[in-house]
Design brief:
Length: 417
């Protein structure tokens, strides 16, 4: 890692180069962008041993820093996960190009023909923690949508992110696109984050992807608009009309498949009528799977406390509570949730409809694992994050969500009376 004496000057230079690259990307051909992503995918696979070696350095750094097992899992790359990065790059490459897509068009009595078409946002700053695959996901989606991007990865993933970034640049170079289209902040110094958040002359939007501390910092300090990706306080409500087999399968997958991702279940709400039956079975199955269940109204590993509600554990821990009915579950989620992802398990369509209608999380699920809260699983190839706000982008942010629009108005010597 090189020592940077003047963080402000370094970040300004990144901003200038990104702005210049964005001007070229705005009209880059779909074929060139596809070629850059295919080239990047080929480079990632060809250089996988180098990436894994870089990741080993990051894992050592993480162990020294005392990262939890779940956070170490987020950080770790092996050949299978690198194959996933390659697959994600190829999927984004093969998707349709959103830039220039006609969203609507109409004719006016005045003789004007009007079209609303997708256009890039410009320069995007992405700030993320731990997960080095975000380097590839964010770089790919920004490029696909015609945006330049400045990536600031977490200090834990510094070497892994650098190795992946080099592959993205290799793809840009081979496709004759500006290498400055995807830049990586070359320092762990947190002062670089503060600079990025205030670079209104060069950056059009910031996307934070990380824990509550990171997102809170960004929202407090940013002068650039923000697509907020808040913590995933994910709830599953088990209704009295739940199918027991489906409930067991979904809950175990939602909690234990990967505990460190934002779609992992963090709180189980169980209808009072099934607390002693299916509820007890669910708690027992979770405990047998190695999950610590902090429970209220149920016999769990530990009694729940107020601090357990509204908490993103990101570990083999889940909070559980008995509730009166679906309305009580909705009230709990409204009070303690983060508007990220919430799920109902029921065979009663009216209950599912009420849950969908009366909650406003970015993603609502019925009888499906919350681990599907992922842009790749939504057919987007990858995601830059899951936006929990209500402005512009919401839910998984893929290439299409990284665009704005403009109006193209055509006349024939048309004048206004």
């Amino acid at each position: 890692m090189k020592d940077i004496a003047d963080i402000s000057a370094t970040m300004t230079e990144l901003g200038k180069r990104a702005r210049a690259a964005a001007a070229q990307l705005a009209f880059a051909s779909a074929e060139a962008k596809r070629a850059a992503l295919i080239g990047a995918a080929d480079a990632v696979w060809a250089r996988r041993e180098e990436i894994i070696a870089a990741n080993a350095r990051d894992l050592e750094f993480g162990r020294d820093k005392g990262l939890s097992p779940a956070m170490m899992d987020r950080l770790m790359l092996d050949e299978a996960r690198i194959q996933g990065i390659v697959d994600g790059l190829r999927t984004v490459a093969e998707q349709g190009d959103p830039v220039g897509e006609i969203l609507a068009e109409w004719d006016m009595p005045s003789g004007l023909h009007i079209q609303r078409v997708r256009t890039p946002l410009g320069v995007i700053g992405v700030i993320y923690e731990s997960r080095p695959n975000v380097t590839a996901d964010a770089g790919a989606l920004c490029l696909k949508s015609g945006n330049a991007v400045i990536l600031r990865g977490g200090s834990e993933s510094f070497h892994s992110s650098g190795a992946i970034h080099a592959c993205l640049v290799e793809g840009l170079r081979a496709a004759n696109l500006p290498e400055d289209a995807i830049q990586l902040v070359p320092t762990r110094d947190r002062a670089a984050v503060s600079e990025l958040l205030t670079m209104t002359d060069y950056v059009d939007v910031i996307v934070p992807r990380g824990g509550k501390g990171l997102v809170g910092l960004v929202q407090r300090e940013a002068r650039v608009p923000v697509f907020a990706h808040l913590e995933g306080i994910v709830h599953i409500y088990i209704d009295k009309a739940a199918d027991p087999e489906k409930a067991l399968r979904v809950v175990l997958n939602a909690k234990t498949r990967r505990t460190g991702i934002c779609g992992a279940a963090e709180c189980l709400l169980i209808h009072k009528d099934i607390a002693d039956g299916l509820g007890a079975d669910l708690v027992r199955a979770l405990i047998e799977a190695g999950v610590e269940v902090r429970a209220e109204g149920l016999s769990g590993s530990l009694p729940a406390t107020e601090a357990d509600w509204g908490k993103e554990h990101l570990d083999m821990i889940i909070s559980a509570r008995v509730v009166e009915d679906v309305d009580a579950a909705i009230a709990h989620i409204r009070h303690y949730g983060s508007n990220h992802t919430d799920c109902v398990i029921t065979e009663d369509d009216a209950v599912a409809a009420r849950f969908f209608e009366r909650l406003d999380s970015a993603i609502l699920m019925h009888n499906a694992s919350t681990q599907f809260a992922d842009g790749g699983e939504f057919g987007m190839g990858a995601e830059i994050g899951i936006a929990t706000g209500k402005m512009h982008a919401r839910g998984p942010v893929g290439a299409a969500q990284l665009t704005s629009f403009k109006y193209l108005v055509r006349g024939n010597g048309t004048t206004r009376a």
